[in-house]
Amino acid sequence: MTHISDNLHIGQAPTGIAPQIAGGRGFGPVGRTYVYDIVPLALNASAIAASQSPGSAALTLSAGTGVTAVVVNGQTRYTFDVPRTVTITSGGVDTGINFLVRGFDTYGNAMSEAITGASSTIATGKKAFMSVISITPSGAVASTVTAGTSDVFGLPVALVDAGYIASVKWNETLTTDAGTFVAADNTSPATTTTGDVRGTYKPSANASNGVRRLVILVALSSLNIGTAQTVVGVLGQPQV
Predict the structure, then answer these.
(1) How many CB atoms sit inside 10 A of residue 111's CB?
(2) pTM of this structure
(3) Which of 22, 91, 111, 169 has the most CB atoms in a 10 Å sphere around its CB?
(4) Under a CB-based contact definition with an 8 Å cutoff, are residues 75 and 131 in contact?
(5) Does residue 3 belong to any structural domain of this protein?
(6) What gap in Å lies between CA 205 and CA 130, rounded to an integer?
(7) Tell me: the pLDDT tens digits for 149-206?
(8) Are residues 135 and 167 part of one domain?
(9) The domain boundary residue, chosen from 117, 136, 153
């Protein structure tokens, strides 16, 4: 009996996530494995906003170490080396304030997240941004504040279960890394307070330094995609 099969590719469209069916930057073939290989630069608590006292105004963003300022259609995007979550470091009590972070994900889709401020410490977001364009507090910041990057990295495909991670290696060791995996948030529609639509991973130890390599072997199951939700199954819910 003759059997003919082909590979399913998921690619990027210039706007939105829904049309990402073929071509461009994206995923393929589905039904095999994908090697996610990154060497993240050192995290930086002030990578996108140096220490300042903005009151209730938007933070003044700047490109610190590990961040590149790129102008796209007249808009400055503060772009990271790899998709990673944003941190807000408060010098005072900002627990009653939400910092609205707006930017783009690794596929160029617009996204936003409301990060609840902390009390004289660091608040870490749940969504992995590739670039940030603005950070605006919902009220007056108590003291000083900075914004930067964390060692929580965004995954390139929606992983709804840890079982789809075939292998994780970190810091040049054969031992499987026992880091923190957060599954893709499949809430529909996504909001500014839901989690990352593809999921995140934080290595167990040893901070990123531009040398340590994270290698994740991801199983791209064609069964998990389904017949009617191809794009959502692979790339997650549309960003908000």
Answers:
(1) 23
(2) 0.86
(3) 111
(4) no
(5) no
(6) 23
(7) 999 999 998 898 999 899 999 999 999 999 999 999 999 999 999 999 999 999 999 9
(8) no
(9) 153
